[in-house]
Amino acid sequence: MIKVGIVGGTGYTGVELLRLLAQHPEVQITAITSRTEAGLPVSDLFPSLRGRIDLKFSTPDDAKLTECDAVFFATPHGVAMAQAKELLAAGVKILDLAADFRLQDVKEFAQWYGLEHSCPEILAEAVYGLPEINREAIKKARVVGLAGCYPTSVQLGLAPLLSQKSTGGSQLIDGTHIISDSKSGTSGAGRKAEIGTLLSEASDNFKAYSVKGHRHLPEIVQGLKAIAGHDQIGLTFVPHLTPMVRGIHSTIYARLTEVGMSVDYQALYEHFYQDEPFVDVMPAGSHPETRSVRGSNGLRVAVHRPGNGDTLVILVVEDNLVKGASGQGVQCLNLMFGLPETTGLTQIAVSP
Amino acid sequence: MIKVGIVGGTGYTGVELLRLLAQHPEVQITAITSRTEAGLPVSDLFPSLRGRIDLKFSTPDDAKLTECDAVFFATPHGVAMAQAKELLAAGVKILDLAADFRLQDVKEFAQWYGLEHSCPEILAEAVYGLPEINREAIKKARVVGLAGCYPTSVQLGLAPLLSQKSTGGSQLIDGTHIISDSKSGTSGAGRKAEIGTLLSEASDNFKAYSVKGHRHLPEIVQGLKAIAGHDQIGLTFVPHLTPMVRGIHSTIYARLTEVGMSVDYQALYEHFYQDEPFVDVMPAGSHPETRSVRGSNGLRVAVHRPGNGDTLVILVVEDNLVKGASGQGVQCLNLMFGLPETTGLTQIAVSP
Amino acid sequence: MIKVGIVGGTGYTGVELLRLLAQHPEVQITAITSRTEAGLPVSDLFPSLRGRIDLKFSTPDDAKLTECDAVFFATPHGVAMAQAKELLAAGVKILDLAADFRLQDVKEFAQWYGLEHSCPEILAEAVYGLPEINREAIKKARVVGLAGCYPTSVQLGLAPLLSQKSTGGSQLIDGTHIISDSKSGTSGAGRKAEIGTLLSEASDNFKAYSVKGHRHLPEIVQGLKAIAGHDQIGLTFVPHLTPMVRGIHSTIYARLTEVGMSVDYQALYEHFYQDEPFVDVMPAGSHPETRSVRGSNGLRVAVHRPGNGDTLVILVVEDNLVKGASGQGVQCLNLMFGLPETTGLTQIAVSP
Amino acid sequence: MIKVGIVGGTGYTGVELLRLLAQHPEVQITAITSRTEAGLPVSDLFPSLRGRIDLKFSTPDDAKLTECDAVFFATPHGVAMAQAKELLAAGVKILDLAADFRLQDVKEFAQWYGLEHSCPEILAEAVYGLPEINREAIKKARVVGLAGCYPTSVQLGLAPLLSQKSTGGSQLIDGTHIISDSKSGTSGAGRKAEIGTLLSEASDNFKAYSVKGHRHLPEIVQGLKAIAGHDQIGLTFVPHLTPMVRGIHSTIYARLTEVGMSVDYQALYEHFYQDEPFVDVMPAGSHPETRSVRGSNGLRVAVHRPGNGDTLVILVVEDNLVKGASGQGVQCLNLMFGLPETTGLTQIAVSP
């Protein structure tokens, strides 16, 4: 059994990790920390876990995290990098659900997150946690910075178009003017007392936010450059808040190059993802729905070319708390410990 | 492996059965029928099942249901009773999610459901599918008429108060004037094209329905009489439609007798359900939420006595599609085939 | 034009007052205060009012409230009573949307609201703001303590059964064991940053709360006693949170006395409310929906007697922010200033 | 008083017309027709209108529509064109909420709507009902084909960028590759018994639809060409279904030309719409919300230029049933009958 600790388990990625890990056959949750809730049984805070998790929140000091095999950080950014060094020294593998180990450029990190990176040397060895792109590196990693929720959907939506693996170096699309119009449920905003995401405010309502620049923009661009193998990437990324709890739907627009005009994209996508257990290329003409993956680790993608013109429209859905966060975390954990990648991740979506 | 067939798998109880049975380690789904969708892959109708169920809908004639070990009816009432005789003759066990085998009184059945019962002799041997009350009978049953969604919540909410087992024959409450104010999500209305349950009609809205008499009323009363061991039962049952998908919340009001005034109800409920894997008596003062059991087979109950007066308030929550229908069906299936009762039913609620 | 000030206009009753008063032909809003938002244009906080309200929030000190003809308090309890004396001295009429002037018994106020009443002498002259019951007193009042949202629905639902006016002193129901199972949208919880009413928490969810005792209980009981003209009133009141924004639905259960068994309740209700502009007695057999009054000052009531038995079921719907709060406030304002009662309150419900 | 008839008043645009017209000081509704509901009081079908509309549905034959001054068609396409000739001959003005008089090209109409146009000569004189673009022509029109819901949002979002009036012939954007990613509430799908828009299906869910081509695409393109004064327009239009009742949010992406790089778009938009009563250009940096216009005839637009790059992002919100349909109809009616344009359209949005 892998002994797993969770730092900061009081948010939505925390409770989702608990749901998944409690059903994972090879994991034992040995510690879960929260400064604010120390002493409280986990199932008092999250009644959905009554009878399934028999643990109390402990303070970070009492948690004996160094005795774990792996520790998840389900915390705001800035926490994981403060504790990483000690954990690594104790031989503990780290999976960060926040942004501390996502952006390789410390200046960019400082610019978007408003604080200096405290362990650039660990950042240098950290692996970006997006298994469909980075599987082999994740297997060997000591530190994984898990891909963000929006970035997972946009990168996996575009990977077949940009990857050297599938395009053989041809530019199929104009990578400098990609658009991702992305929509998220409110759980993406976290379990925080805020007026803007009250049911009274956010239901029967729809709006964009952060149009001038969202923190996930540099992460996505970094990832697309890596996938493409070049730096000629430009992205307009507009996130929106949708009156639902779970789910991200990214609608991605890309303009074809002349070379790109003669490609069969349905075949390209199906081939690219043929061996992926969690990526499902939908039949031609499909419109995937977020609820079709609710509660599961699946991501679904459909590729359209309206009017056979020069604009591709790629539709991607995922559950932001599973494939966009905690499920992806478990997927990486499986890879890091040599388990079959789908272990503990076979939940079927709950629908309706 | 138990070979299971499903008749009429295009509704919400059907897709929920598929979700549960596809993850059940001892079941093989061998047939699923639908006249209207025959030939269609199940996962085309229910994209949440893509990659998990590799079956097509077949016509009832092609389905070879007589080769199954057990057949679920996830159909409107009237279908199961028409096919029961042939299936029983072939040695197939029957679990009906509709009402054909719930009401023992054929006159009452005719009155509430508007058609004559076509096989009273099979009805006579049918067992009411509510394991917490009827476990031993279910184990031996060939035909189980699964308890309805509302009836499950009301009967399990009241059983500790009425059962000879716990009350030793004392009347703790005035059983002649029980009130159940019950609220259901819209999935209880089924997957039917109707205006009243459109999102545009039912969201941001709340209403009662069928106040003059709902079909579940005679079923609940029959069940409460059986639990109580006497006929002095009167119930006012008012169902309401709530703008959510899954979940039933029954708020039950019962007036205490003089004997009943001195009982510790928290202890009574905890003791009554101490060995039940799916019934969770909440700590004193709790207000269980429907989402805490969403997607799981759990039912939660809390008992209150406001102002220490003579009125008990019992709060019960369940997922109407799981413990209120398909999950209860699997629970009964497990009992009928000698499996541990929780087999395939260990899903943790999806929350948020 | 009546010069109106609003103290504490940053909550939902505040913005709803603004919506109604901005369209009121006889009112000029001259001041709106908020300590936290002083200096901010009202339409920056509430974009729905852009172009319709050209006012900034001011501090209570700058607001010159004493120059108003009437002042609404859309504040937490405790604020109105602190400022009432000075306003009354300046000849300003007071309408309090909070609880400071609802409960006549200062001990009860202290017990339920946790603070001493600071001006019992003003409380003594305050009139309870429920026009259908108290119309004449409101016309002459200097201080009106507006009825709460739940209390409005329960009292108007029961008034025909309890009122001397309609019953002529007969007890039609057992007033000592009334049950009100009430459901509210989340706007009733106010515009407050709290986790429990986040969309991620409260949507697709249903729960009871405050079963052991809600602050509206003593208010309702006080009101029912006044309506009945005697003290033999007992109420079990269970509020529930429904995943919608606006609306209250109270389902009220009352047991008939022998005298009550022979009464035509449809006729009784229709007669009782025949002249009321905002109370609509629905046709026999109706199930009123909350959305049918959304955004309007209407309250709808239907009376049922299932199975012609001895239990009456009364269904009441209202918009908690309009008839349950700000609309009722405007209705009282009209009465206090000699205007037709419906002035500025003719909005038709928004549906769907 | 203008005598107004409504053909086909049983859908959402019908009930919304009734809500608006019942409060319109210069309109008398004299007839409302429905073949299926003939004889039924309007307020029985739409309880929100109880006490406000005292009319019954009549058959088209009994309705004496030729005695009206104006007739609205709130019907599926194909109905208005069948009755237009007779009504015009009787001197009745026609406002069609469906598509019969939107597309000037009868071939295009046949292609997208699947039927031949039956009165091309009337189509030739019909005016497109989008007052901000076509005000003078609407004033003189006998037949108005009201702009569709999505088309209103996209055209008004783009008009300042394309209009000769504001651009003086310069191409500020590449008009051949415009993208509109549009999101609608479910009321846009109409009051029809369908499975896809059940609350159980559409809530907590998000999906695109009709990516290969939606009927509003040719309408929008026709309109944009007219606004631009040239034919070099290409649009990728992707509509999405959002789990809410009312509201459209269009997120529009346009690439700037070199000339366009030096323009102040905030000023351009504010100037273009400075005299419009129903179009509100939001302050720079705003993210308008659909609920801020819910129930009102307002449309709000914000223009962004992320990173000061070459891609403009225009955000547009409207209530699809008001500015996107029935409110726009009333606005056109006012123009056609010489009334102030805002008559009967001063409702403030209902929020929360």
UniProtKB/TrEMBL annotation, chains A, B, C, D:
Question: EC top class, in one word?
Answer: oxidoreductase
The GO cellular component terms are:
cytoplasm
Q: Which domain of life is it from?
A: Bacteria
Which residues does the UniProt record annotate as the domain Semialdehyde dehydrogenase NAD-binding?
3-141
Provide the GO biological process annotations. Answer: L-arginine biosynthetic process
Active site residues per record: 149
The reaction(s) catalysed by this protein are: N-acetyl-L-glutamate 5-semialdehyde + phosphate + NADP(+) = N-acetyl-L-glutamyl 5-phosphate + NADPH + H(+)
Q: Which InterPro entries match?
A: AGPR (IPR050085), AGPR_AS (IPR023013), AGPR_dimerisation_dom (IPR058924), AGPR_type-1 (IPR000706), NAD(P)-bd_dom_sf (IPR036291), Semialdehyde_DH_NAD-bd (IPR000534)
Which Gene3D superfamilies does the record cross-reference, listed alphabetically?
Answer: Dihydrodipicolinate Reductase, domain 2 (3.30.360.10), NAD(P)-binding Rossmann-like Domain (3.40.50.720)
Q: In which pathway does it act?
A: Amino-acid biosynthesis; L-arginine biosynthesis; N(2)-acetyl-L-ornithine from L-glutamate: step 3/4
Any idea of its EC number? Answer: 1.2.1.38
UniProt xrefs under Pfam families: Semialdhyde_dh, Semialdhyde_dhC_1
GO MF assignments: N-acetyl-gamma-glutamyl-phosphate reductase activity; NAD binding; NADP+ binding
Record's keyword terms, sorted:
Amino-acid biosynthesis, Arginine biosynthesis, Cytoplasm, NADP, Oxidoreductase
Q: Which family does it belong to?
A: Belongs to the NAGSA dehydrogenase family. Type 1 subfamily.
Query: Function of this protein?
Result: Catalyzes the NADPH-dependent reduction of N-acetyl-5-glutamyl phosphate to yield N-acetyl-L-glutamate 5-semialdehyde.
What is the name of this protein? N-acetyl-gamma-glutamyl-phosphate reductase
Species, as recorded? Polynucleobacter brandtiae
